[in-house]
Write a structure and sequence with these properties.
By secondary structure, the protein is of the alpha+beta class. Helices cover 53% and strands 15% of the residues. The protein has three helices and two strands, in the order ααββα. A two-stranded antiparallel sheet has the order 1-2. A hairpin with a 7-residue loop joins strand 1 and strand 2.
Amino acid sequence: MLKITIFTVAFLTSVPALAQAISAPAPAPQQTASADKKENPLDKIICRTEDTIGSRLKAHKVCATLREWKDQEDENRMEFDRIQQGQGVTPSG
């Protein structure tokens, strides 16, 4: 009987501390950082489905930020212009 009483007293004294710890969690660092700093729309992740080269049936998913997609488009455009101006692929001799 004494063991049950000791256990009950120990349990009841720890409950308020436990309840206080559960009810007031610390804010996560990500939550405070995103609240203080507005997200850049260029950092939004966009996924696209691209065909697999050499197959008409296979495709794969590619995810990148909007900034990365724009950089890739700019690079492709510059390469296309370079090839179109005759500075592109040269035959090896």
